[in-house]
Queue: 2 jobs
Job 1
Amino acid sequence: MKSWYKDSIVYQIYPRSFQDSAETAFPNDGIGDIPGIISRLDEIKELGVNVIWLSPVYKSPDADNGYDISDYYDISPKFGTMADMERLFAEAKKRDIRIIMDLVINHTSDEHEWFQKSRDPASPYRNYYIWQPGKNSRKQPPNNWTGFFTGDTWEYDEKSGEYYLHLFDKKQPDLNFKNPKVIEEVKNILRFWLDKGAAGFRCDVINIIYKTSLEDGKKSMAVRGLEHYKSQEGAHEVLRELRRDVLDKYDCFTVGETVFVDLEDAKLLCNEDRKELNMLFFFDHLEVDRRIAQFIPKKFHAHKLLKVTTKWQQGLDWNAVYFENHDQPRIVSHYGAAESERALPGEMWKRSAKMLALFEMTLRGTLFIYQGQEIGMTNFDFKSMDELNDVVSFGINKLMKKLFIPGFLRWKWIKASSRDNARTPMQWNNDENAGFSRGKPWLGVNNNYRHINYESQKKDPDSILNFYKKLIALRKESKCLVYGEFLPLYADSRLIIYRRKLNNEIYTIALNFSSNEIKLPGKYLPCFSGDRVISASGRKQESRMLPWDGVLIKTANY
Ligand code: GLC
C-alpha cells in the first residue's frame, strides 16, 4: 500500500498570486503564471516540501478565479501553455517534488461547451446538468435552496425555457452525477492528468456533488437545502467508482475538500477500507471563533480549539492538517497577534506566527502549507470594498445590506473574513510589488511587504521562514510527530498543552494564545524537563511562558 503521502509536506500554490513572469502570452500582466512557479521551485524545495497542490490553472472565464472551468484539458493562457505545464511537471520531478491538481467537478463554467450544448433541451448534453421547469407556471425557481455564495441557486435560461442549478455562482452550473456519462467524463479527466504526471487531486467541495432529491430544504440560517446533497450515498458511490476504475491504478492520492462535514461523514469518506478519499479538509478548527457561515466573530477560547483538534486528531485514521488556504484569512491575523500590533507587525506577530507553526507542525497527518504562510503573511489592510475582488465578499455585503446591518459592521466583518486576505500577491522581496510582478498586480500587494518578505527572512536565522524549515526538518526525522498518538493534557482559555507519543518517543507541546505571560500549571512542569527544546521565543523553557510563546520539548522518562 502506497503511503508516501502520509509523511509528505504539501505546499499549496494559488497561481495567480504566486509569481508573475515575462514568459507567457501576457508578459508581466500582474497575474502569476506557470513559468513563474518554475522559477521558484528551488525556494519551495528548500523549505522541505515534496508535494505541490496547484489551485486551478485550467481554461476559465475566472468568475471564481479558476474554480469555474471551461476546459479541463487546457491551460488558461494567462498562466501559460500545456508545454509550460509539462515543463513544470518535469522540473518539479527533477527536484523530487510531485504535483497534485485541483479537481473541480461539482460544477463547470457556464462557458464550458457541455453547458452551452446542454441549453438545447434535445441535446445529449442536456442531462449533464440539472435542468428543471419553474414552479407556478415557470415564474418561481424549482425549490427554495440558497447558495454557498449567499445568492440564488437557480438561474432561468431563456433559450432552454428552464432553470439550471448552481450551488455557487450562476456562472458555475452544477453537474449531474446521476448521469453515468458525467462520471465517465470525470474518469477521462483524471486519466489525462495522471498520465501527464499528476500525483493526485485535491477534490473541490467533493461531498456535495450528488443531489439525491430536489425537494425544498429545511429552514436554515446557513445554506438551505443541504440535507438533500451533503455527503449522500450517491457521492460515496461516485468516489468509490473513481477510485476503483482509475485512481487505484496510479501511484497517487486524493484529499477532499468537504463542506459542513461532521466527524461521522468524514469517517465514511476517508476510511481506508471503503476506498473513497485518502483524507479530507474539514473546517471546524478554523471556526471556533466564528458563527454562521464563518463571518460573524465570537470570542476565542483556546480550550475550544484543543477540543476540536482532539476530536479530529483522535477521530480519524488520518488527517489532512492545514491552517490556511486561498479561502481563509491568514492564520497569524486570525489566531495570532498580527492584528493587535497597530503599526507594523513586530515581535508578537513573529512569535505568534512561530507558535502557530509549532502547533500545525506537531499535529498527526499530512501537512499542508499555503503560500506565504511560511513567512507569516498577514491579512491585507484593505480600505474599502473597491479594493476587493472576491465574489463571496460582494455576495455577503449584499446579503447583509438586505438585513439592514450597518455599513461599519459589514465592513469590519468582511475585512476580517474576505477570501482576498489570502490572495494578495506573494511577498518575495522589497522591490516594487514585492518582487511578484513588474506589472500592476491583479490584487493589491500588502503594504507591509518591505517588512515581511521571503528574501529578508531567508537571510535571518531567527525568521519565521527558518523556523518552518527547522520544524519541517524535525518532522522528517521523527515518526512520532507524523504518526504518533495525539494526547491532550491541559487547556484553559489561553493555554493548551498536548503530547505526541509513539512507543518511547514523546513530545510535549505548550502554546500560549494570549498577550499575557502565563505560569505553567505545576502539575505539568515535569513534562517540560527534556533535552530537546524548540520555542517560538527562542527562550529555554522555564515555569512561565512568554506572551504568544509556543514550546516543544522532547520529554524524557515521564
Ligand atoms: C471551494 C474552493 C473555493 C471555490 C468553491 C467553488 O470551496 O476552495 O475557492 O470558490 O469551492 O468551487
Note: The mean pLDDT is 95.
Job 2
Amino acid sequence: MIASRRIVLGVTGGIAAYKAAALARALVLAGAEVRTVMTDSATRFLGPATLAAITGTRPVVDLFDDPAVSPHTDLAAWADLVVIAPATTATLARLAAGLSSDAVSATVIAFAGPVVLAPAMHTEMWEHPATVRNVATLRDDGYRIVGPAAGPLAGGDVGIGRMAEPDDIVSAIDAALAPGDLEGLRVLVDAGGTREPIDPVRYIGNRSSGKMGNAIARAAARRGAAVTLVTTAEPPDDDRIEVVPVETAQEMAEAMWRRAPEVDVAVLAAAVADFRPARPADRKLRRTDGLEAVPLEPTPDILRGIAEMPERPFLVGFAAQVGDLAGAVDKARSKGVDLLVANDVSKEGSGFGTDTNEVVLVAPDGATETWPLLAKDEVAERLWDRIVALRGEEAPT
Ligand code: PMT
C-alpha cells in the first residue's frame, strides 16, 4: 500500500523527533515519496538537513520564508496521507481545536485525507484530562492514533508516553491507506503445504512457505474483512486475523469445509498434498524394519468440496503449474471456481518460498490475464481489487 504513495511527514518538537529520521527512511525504503514539514521547535531536536538528505526535498519550516506562496496547502494537495511523528501535547491540542498556528498544524488542517498521529510526551501530560479530552476529540474527528508505548522516557522517567516505533507507525500508515472496501466481508484463506505422516516423525510434504496465503489474508484484514486463515505455516503477526493451525490435508479439509458455508469469499492458496500414506505407522520406522514401498491414497479435494456446497462462497483457487498453462485452464473450467490464479512454480522468483510471484488469472471460461512479476503483497492487493470487481458484477441490481 505504501509503495508510490505520497506521504507528508510532520515533525513537532519533542525528543522523539530523532526517530522521525528513521521513520522517513523506512517510508522511503518502502517506496513512498516523502515530503516533510517541521515546527520551529522540532528543528531544535532534528536538523532539517537530515530530513532533506533522507527524502530528497527540504522540509517546510516557516510558512512565510518558504519559496512557495502557500507551502501548507501545496503539501496538503500533494499528499495521499499525512503522518505527524512525534505529535506533542501542544500539537494534539491545536489539532483538536482546529488551530493552524504553525507549518505542521496548518498542513494538517488544510488536508482532507487520512492523518496518522504518533503522540510522544511524558506520562503526566498524556494522562492529563485535557490531553485525554483532545485525543477523544481527535479520534471522533477521524484521526488515527498509533501509540504511545510504555517504556523509558526523556529525563530517566519510565511510563506510557514513548512514541511508537517507526515500524509500528509504518504499519498504521499502511492500514490507513488501505481502501476498507472489504468491510463487513467474511474471508477464509488457506496457506502452506500439508504434511502427510509416514510415521510419527516423518512426513510427505512440499516447499510451500505460506507467504502467498499470508499476503492474501493480511491484505484482506487491512481492507476491513473478518479473516480466518487455516494454515500449516507460520502465520502473519496480525491480531486481526483468526488463525487455525493444521497439519494434514484431512485437518485442513475439515477446518475449511466447516467454515466455508459461513463466509463470503474463500481463497485456497495452500499446496495440499494430493496423496497421503494409506497406512501411516504408529511408531517410528527403523532402517532395520526395511521398507519397500509407501502405499498412497488420495487426500480429500478441499476445493472441489467447497465448489459443490449448495451455499458456497465466491471461490478462488490457485494452480501450481510447471511450464505451460494448459492444465490451469482445464482446472478453471472443471473445478467450479469463480477465479483461478495460476503460477509457474518453475520460474525464477515465482511460486514456492519466494517473496514475489508471477501469476496468470484464469476465468472459468478459460480467458487469461498475465500479471508481471510482483511482490506477493502486491499480487494479494490486486487479487482483492479483482475479487471486489467480480463480486460487484455478480451482485443483483
Ligand atoms: O506458500 P508459498 O511458498 O508462498 O507458495 C505459494 C504457492 C506456490 C503454494 C501458491 O501460489 C500456490 O500455487 N498454491 C496452490 C498449490 C497447489 O496445490 O496447486 P494445485 O494445482 O495442485 O491445486 C489446485 C487448487 O486445488 C489449489 O487451490 C489447491 O489449494 C487446491 N487443492 C489441491 C489439492 C487438494 N487435495 N485439495 C485442494 O483444495
Note: The chain is about 35% helix and 25% strand.
